Please model this.
Amino acid sequence: MTTKSYTALWFRHLKTDWFQLKQPALRYKPFVLSISDHGRKLVAAADPKAESQGIFRGATVADARAIVPGIEVLDDIPGLSDKLLGALAEWCIRFTPIAAVDAPDGLLLDSTGCSHLWGGDQAYLQAILTRLQARGYDVRGAMAGTIGTVWALARFGRQPVIPDPAHQRDELLRLPPAALRLETVTLDKLQKLGLVTVGQFAHMTRSVLRRRFGQNLLLRLDQAFGREEEFLQPLQPVEQYQERLPCLEPIATATGIGIALQRLLEALTKRVQKEGKGIREAQLKAYRLDGKIEHQKIATNRPTDNAPHLFKLFELKIQEIEPDLGIELFTLEATKLEDLSPVQEELWAGDQGLEARPIADLLDQLTGRFGSGCIRRYLPDEHHWPERSIKPAQDLSEKPAIPWRTDRPRPTILLPQPIPIQVTAPVPDYPPLLFRHQDKVHQIKKADGPERIEREWWLEEGPHRDYYCVEDQDGDRYWLFRSGHYTGDRDQQWFLHGYFP
Model:
C-alpha cells in the first residue's frame, strides 16, 4: 500500500503580495488594505513592512496612521483571496492532479506518488516553493503524511519542513496548540491552563480532554496523528481517463511535443482498451513555465482506441501550441468515451459502409483539418415538404427511422429555400417551355412531371406544389415547381428548387 503524502503551502501575505505585483512601487513603502466595518476602517491585511512596525490585521486604519504617518491605505477587494487561491491551485496541478484550496491563505496538495518525478521529496517541495517565490509570493511549505500535520508544520515548523516519517509525531508535539486548527475559545482555555505545546496535553485521558475542551480537540488530534482520515476537496475533479507526463526539462519544440503526445496516447489507449471502450473526444493540456495553459481538442466520428489515428488528429494542431519558454507538464484526458465493438479492418469487406474503420478515420482527419462543420450526414425525416424531408445525423452510427424515398427522382443539390423564376408555359399542368434564372434563358428540351406534393395541413396552410424534372439546351437538369393551381398570373408562381448531376 502506498504511503500517503501531503504538501501544505501557506501564503503569509497573499493579498498584499498580489497588490505589489500589480503596483511595483508598493514594494518600497509600508501599506495596508482596508475594509469598512460599522462605520470604521479596519486593516484587512498588512504588508511585511507594516507588520514589522506593529500593524496587523484587525487594527483600525486610524491607529495604523498614528503608528506610521503617511502609510499607504488601499481598499481591499472582496473575494480576492478566493480568486487568487483558485488560480494558484490550478497552477499547482502541474505538480499533482489533486490540489485543494485551504482558505483563507493556503493550499493543500496530495503529493502521493508525485515527488519521485522531481528527484525526491526535498527537490519536489523546493521546486514548488522556488517557483512560487519567483512569482512574487511569500510562501512557506511542508510535506508530511497527514493533512493535520502538514498544515501545522507549514505554519509553525522550521522551513522547509519534511520530517522523517518516524519523527513526524515528535515534530507535531513541539508545536503550539494553534497548530491543531482549534477555535479561539479553546486556545484561550489551553493558554490559561499553561498548556503551550501540543505535547503537554496530547497524552491526557480522552474523557478529560473532551469534558474540558470539547470533541473538536480530540478530532483535530486524531486527524493530525492519522487516527482519523481526512479528505481533500480538489479544485478540479480527478478524471478517471487522464494521463500525465511531467517533463524533466521544459519542452519548446514541435518535435518534443509530438513525442510527449505519442507517449500519452499509448498509455491512454491501453487503459481504454482493457475496458472495451473507445475515445470520441480528447483534450490535451500543455502547462507552460509562465503559468499559462495551452488547450487542444479533437473529436472522432466513432469510438476508437487507435493511437496512431488519434495522433494524426492531434498532429494537425501541434503547430497551434505556443510553448513560449517551455512546457513542463502535459495532460491528456478522454472527455468522452463510448463502448467499442470489434470491426473488420478491410475497407470494403462485406457491407460495412460507414462502419469501416478507414472511412471513419478519413472523416476524422478531414474534420480535424477543415473544422467540425465540413462534413455533414443526413437522414430522411417524416415530412412531405422536400426541404423538411431530411435532418442532420448526430453521428455515423445513427440509423434512419424511415427508408429513403427512391420511387421518384430527387435532385443531388436541394436548395434550402426555393428561388422564384420566370417561366413560359403553354397550358395548365404542362411543363414550361423555358425559364429565366440569373438573367439566363433556359430552353427546355426534355421534361417529366408533374409530381404533386401537398402541404402538411397540420403544420400550416397554403397551396400545393407541382414539381417537374427538366433538361435545358445545355444538358443541365433542374427541379422546378409551380405553386398552387394555374391562374394565368405567372409572377412568383414558379420556383427553382434543386439541381441534378
Summary: The CA atoms of residues 11 and 421 lie 74 Å apart. The mean pLDDT is 86.
